[in-house]
Specification:
heterotrimer, A: 543 residues, alpha/beta, Rossmann fold, 6-stranded mixed sheet, 19 helices, C: 351 residues, mainly alpha, ABC transporter involved in vitamin B12 uptake, BtuC, 13 helices
Amino acid sequence: MVLPPRSISDAPPESRGIPRVLLAADAVVVDYPGVRALDRVSAEFRAGEIHAIVGENGAGKSTLMKVLSGSVRPTAGAVRVAGAARTFNAPSEAIRAGIAMVHQELNLVPTLDVAENVCLGRESVGAFGLRVDRRRQRARATELLAMLGSSLDPTRAAGDLSVAEAQFVEIAKCLASDAQVLIFDEPTAVLGEHEAERLLSLLGRLRDEGRAIVFISHHLDEVVAIADRVTVLRDGALVQSFARDHVAGHGAPLRDALGAAVDEARIANAMVGRELGSIYPPKGAAVSEELAIELVGFGAVGRSRGISLAVRPGEIVGVAGLVGSGRTETAEAMVGLRRREGVLRVGGREVSFPGAREALRAGVAYVSEDRKGRGLHVSLPSVANMTLPSLERHVRAGGLSVDGASERAVTARWIEAFSIRCARPDLPISSLSGGNQQKFALARWIEAAPRVLVIDEPTRGVDVGAKGEIYRIVADLAAKGLACIVISSELPELIGLAHRVVVMRNGRLAGELSREKLARRDCEERIVRIASGLPEQEEGAAA
Amino acid sequence: MKRALGIIGIFVAILIYSIVFAENFTTGINLMQVTQRTALYSVLALGAALVIVTGGIDLSIGSVVCLSGIMTPWLLIEKEWTPWQVIPTVLALSAFIGLCHGLLITRLRLQPFLVTLCGLLLYRGIARWMTGDQSQGFQGEFNEVRAIALAKFAIPGVEGFRIPATVIPMIVLSVAIGLFLSRTVWGRWLLATGRNESAARYSGVPTAWLTTLAYVACSLLAGFGGMLFIFDIGSAQPSDFGNFYELYAIAAAVLGGCSLRGGEASIVGVLFGVATLRVLQNTITLAGFSSQIEFAVVGGVLLVGVAADELIRRLGARRLERLGPAAGA
Amino acid sequence: MSSHRPLATVQRMLEKWGVLVAFALLFIVSTAKQGTDFVSPENFRTMLNSNAAVGVLAVGMTLVIVSAGIDLSVGSIVVLAAALGTTAMNALVGAGWSEGSAVLLGAGCTVLAGLAAGAINGSLVVFGRIAPFIATLGGLAAYRSMALAIADAGEIRSQSPTLFAKLGRGGIPLAWESGSVDGQTVYTGLLNAGGKPLTLTYSIIIFFAVAIAAQWLLSMSRFGRHLIAVGANETAARYAGLAVGWVRFRAYALMGLLAGLAGLMQSSRMNSVSTSGLGVGNELDAIAAVVIGGTSLRGGFGRVWGTVVGVLILGMITNILTISNVSPYWQGAVKGAVIVLAVLVQRGSRE
């Protein structure tokens, strides 16, 4: 099924009107010590095209982006700008050559205003270059934002912007540098569904203006919807590429080299190199009618309030909502990591936790969305990460001394149980892939045998293959009587995994979808409507 | 242990240099003096190491040394307290100072360097105010108490060199703190807190509590050290006693492999760090340089140590990249 | 969601204007306590004059803190620069140079020595990648130790007969002769208690000139924009193509230069350099003034005018403590408490 590696330039030659190639990777090789991150990858980025790069985590997407945007120098091969080979020593040199990158973690200066951010490093200065000309900068920012269809006030402080607004500023920044090639690294990952749609239509507009758009995404539906070309990377090599017939226009389907139409499943298969079945395990039933955890008028002070929710053993409850709707904060308040208000009952007893340790003792565990910063100690060995929450159980000599053998044994047990790919548990956990790190992040809490598990973004930064395994783990745990609360921005994941889904908006519970409603085809749209505060038309019609 | 190898190498090199080139270095009395100083400073450095492990810093060590060292003779002579009242009082006061630091840092989330910088001025100010800025000493009394720091144990068959009694607290404290960090749950928690405070908190580690504990231990050790210092030298000026001692403590801890980013420590390394600084200082003095230049040397050594740590970290990161398959993710 | 709580609004106002409120309160307290002894041109002149050097340091510190750095070595740079400059000046006087050129070269030497020390700090932070507070902590010890070594912990007396002291104490008279009554000259303008013209010292002029230049630098110039960007979000600055290291290096070098200037101001006022006393604790005064002025220690935001008011507040506090017969040994404690309070007020509205 898998075709031999080939580059885009081998695609069927088009007869007329081939768009100009603005940027090209020419047999680029990147060797990190001991590992080849990119292996002779070639790709062309043409004016007026959206070129999606897809692949699992570790496939080399980010490395390719870093090469194109000038933060990594290729070991061999070349980056060509308008046909001429260029060597970039820093991102600023790539920017000067018209290649700008919108980074996943938005890079604005919160204490400067929008205009100053847009013009950062390219300030308009007055006479003698002494004084920054604010009025001119504001006019420039207004003009650029208007081009993007945004009427953002250029005098607003960047620190007050929402994620979506900040992204517009970020894009305006790229336009300010006259970038002809715009590289977007998972731009929709931090956006809610509604904001993501707006961004995608903007990408289309930027393309129509003749820019080359490079687009990395984990969301294959987005890729199929807007990309004119798709390059699939696997293990650092280019495995397949698809293109839309540019004569037929942007609405035409993507086709492979043989002319067959390509859909999401086909791309996903190319990414993992095998056929994928449904990645969601079958849903079991709640195992008991008593409540494992109950929130009454609960909230994280200043972030959410009035949340009432009960979860039974064996039940998986999904929590949907836009970024900033207070989901994570509420979860953190549940385990004592934030100040809370309202009532929290675990196993029928009202509780109050000063910290995560007390919460775990009472049987409530929280797996953070921020694996690098809060979930794990990335610089510590896998073993130490594994046992940290339950360290008090791995002691001898009357609790005075940590028992290393016991730690290693329990780590080995979970490596086995979750089929974690980890040959050396004594090495820092950062040496593992995202999926394997996430499995450890789950295992360390499950080891302490909680009754309630709150998982925040269970598959963020996890590749397709590992996603399915994580869903299976969660479903198995639920089947064994664990009450699970899953917070996620990926709606298919919530719909596929959860028994019911609650939706949060502005720090409050805005709605709930029962198991029956989740089975209906319009459930995704319905969740989006609730999350963004639109009226539920069909609900009224049904009633 | 691996982290300590570098400083052991440096120590051996400087020791050999001193033995070969510094006149009078190998005399019994000089070696005894170097050993005594190493033991005294190591008490401070161990405390500094505990705070540095949390990713914090204590700039008030020298002033706590001053306060406790000045208060001890002042209470004994001027206020005519008994040693049994003075020693617990001074130690309790030191611990209380550390508690204040810890609470200001963990509860009000003030920056450690800021809190302890204020402390640096405050405690010396208190010592000067309390004594009217007058020199304090034991006036030849309380020799039985001062023996804690002054006693020397003869080694059978060795002439001229006797082991100072201060080596005992050095060894006891080192072993205790070393075991605490490497073996106990709390020690592991403390190291995890230093690596990444929020990750530790999210893992259920009582980070605020442990950090406070580290500051209490640091000030307590500084207070204890101050007492030993004053027992040793007999009298001191509140205006300059203990000046810049925090720098010695921090420099020794950093040289010994405690990363200022937190989460890493080697107690053996800290001891060799102290010894290195003391031998270096001794050699400089023996060579006839102005004793004023001492702090410049210590400051320079501190910076070299930190820069070396940064270099090691970068090399380590590169090595990890080589091992890690996820480098391209 | 919490933006409409009245408490939050009060906190935000307090953060923004608290420094002026504090200034007004202290002004009232001082007036109530001292009456016309406080509210007199001469007293204001004296207060400004004695705080001008620390003010210059605080202004420089504002820029360093905006870049998310800190400089603990400023007090030691002050003494080292002053010691070097005065020694050089004395050597020139001893070698038979004219007093004018000796003082001029000595002064230049002082400022340049400060610049050099600042450049060393900057290099350690930028190229050595050492945390700013630890790099400058090393400097705090090392620079002072060098100054002590130069004079063997003693004092360096100026060998300039008049000119050096004039630089420190002289200035522009604020009153002019308007005639004479009974053989005594009568002046119009601002007078001191003895009826003689008040001088606006060069120190005060330098302080205000430095403050105005720095405020302009921070809010109007490209360099200021870059300082803020580097301090608030270094990654963003780097991706925007700024030479982050160079920006930070210049902040420390400028700080060193201003510390040298402050050293010159203090040594010329004293007409000597006490290597064990000059500049001690100045770093805390400077940091205190910056924090009181509303500049965030986290970097990325700062205001020089706030720092200037902060310097005046510290001056008034010292004044009140002195006339209330509070031991000078406690003044460090009061400053420490004021810093803590200021940081907490700043913190309040942001969390």
